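We were asked to recover a plausible sequence for a given structure. The inputs and outputs are reproduced exactly as logged, with field labels preserved.

PROBLEM: sequence recovery
POSITIONS: 135
GIVEN STRUCTURE:
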């Protein structure tokens, strides 16, 4: 009886670890470490996850809360560290808008500028420009 209880607890912990919720927790923790992100302005949706032993590959979609048609798809490579997952690397997969990791992780700017990205907060917001007289 005790053996079955222990086995049941072990399998429930494993199923929690091998879930989209566990991957979302890891991605959220990773994003909180990135400066300049406006996490409150986006939703995070884990679309697909492939678990292989102590590694996982996840496809995650970030959507703007203000303009849901703006989205960014990112592929995450994760590694299990004890009772949780940690992001090892990420790469944009496509979509409309900017990179949820900011320009620093995408030096080529192929995903758009920070101004077009509802998920980042510009370091220096543009000042109002008044019309200048022409001579």
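RECOVERED SEQUENCE:
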């Amino acid at each position: 009886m005790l053996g079955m209880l222990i086995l049941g607890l072990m399998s429930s912990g494993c199923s929690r670890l091998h879930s989209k919720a566990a991957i979302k927790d890891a991605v959220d923790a990773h994003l909180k470490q990135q400066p300049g992100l406006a996490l409150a302005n986006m939703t995070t949706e884990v679309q697909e996850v492939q678990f292989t032993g102590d590694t996982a590959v996840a496809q995650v979609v970030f959507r703007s809360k203000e303009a849901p048609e703006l989205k960014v798809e990112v592929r995450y490579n994760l590694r299990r560290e004890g009772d949780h997952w940690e992001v090892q690397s990420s790469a944009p997969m496509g979509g409309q808008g900017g990179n949820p990791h900011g320009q620093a992780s995408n030096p080529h700017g192929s995903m758009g500028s920070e101004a077009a990205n509802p998920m980042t907060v510009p370091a220096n917001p543009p000042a109002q420009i008044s019309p200048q007289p022409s001579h």
